Amino acid sequence: MRDSYHETLDELTDQLVSMARSVGSMLDRASTALLEQDLTRAESVIAQDEDVDDLNLRVEEQCNELLALQQPVATDLRLVTGALRMSSTLERMGDLARHIAKVARMRYPDPAFPPSVRPYFVEMAAQASAMVQRIGDVIGNQDLSLALEVEKLDDRVDQLHRELLQTLLADDWNGTVEEAIDVTLLSRYYERFADHVVSLARRIVYTATGTRYDELEKH
Amino acid sequence: MRDSYHETLDELTDQLVSMARSVGSMLDRASTALLEQDLTRAESVIAQDEDVDDLNLRVEEQCNELLALQQPVATDLRLVTGALRMSSTLERMGDLARHIAKVARMRYPDPAFPPSVRPYFVEMAAQASAMVQRIGDVIGNQDLSLALEVEKLDDRVDQLHRELLQTLLADDWNGTVEEAIDVTLLSRYYERFADHVVSLARRIVYTATGTRYDELEKH
Fold it and tell me: Which residues of B touch A219 (CB under 8 A)?
């Protein structure tokens, strides 16, 4: 049986998993809002962002309490200070999902981009969704091999981001400047979202092993 | 005389001040690189970003050590966990300065934007610079009134960001799509940089008083 100290540490992990699930669900709905001009889903993402902000504050309070009362050391200490930084990152990912939803809402009932770039966003949305899904699993079960997979998915998102920006500069780009701005920002939101997942993966490897691999270079 | 425990806490504060100074200097050089097509300065910002990343890692290690060995409570504990989050934010601000420098370098020897939008960037650069300068002072001397001033400066940056994006959509915009993309991203980098300063200010108020005011809404 787990003592109350370890139960509290487990709870902390559960809260991070739950944040990752919430943020994943926000991202998926934001992507649907964007790809299907679904106003209800856009609104639901924008409303939910506050819940993630609240979760972040709760994680911080729980970490402070744990540190004050239990004085963890070594791996446990890294777990607690790592949780502090991870929940900030997850909160920021929620903000990015909200940004995507806001662009969808602002352009509703029109799509935010011309049909020619839709396939890019379909794939970016799918990759980012797979990444956040996976990171929730990694946080829950500490499977470090999954953490490395996340990097590969991120490489693809970076590639899509670069190609998408190139598309805007091609001779056959026939969208408006407004659409070019929307596409630029949306693409950046997905790319940043994916970068944050990578930084979570690296954080988890560090927490579990005490070894750091190169800090995120690509954001 | 301060005991070694309080000396270590002071050192932690000094490190955050020093990070804020480095990031401020990076931003100023990135702005000069952008506004004056100064390649040397752009390169120096890009090179310096690693130093800020290293400082961030050192702060984290110092915090972990403090927590393990000294077991601070109450305000001191908030100071340490706050430092963890603040140094992440400062590191991210360094990334944004690097992003600005990279756009300047990519377009060199041309400017990244047409002359018509230059005044916006001149003012955004000045506001962001004043904000990071001020936040360094706030971290060092805990003057909470300065923390509130930072919010006002941020309001102006947000306004400039909105106006700049409007400029791209106006009928008399005569730049290219590439310039529109650069302007959009650059403006967003400054706006995010300023938002991060606001979140540092709010963090400092929380650390000093234990009271939180509304979490940053505007990013």
Answer: 95
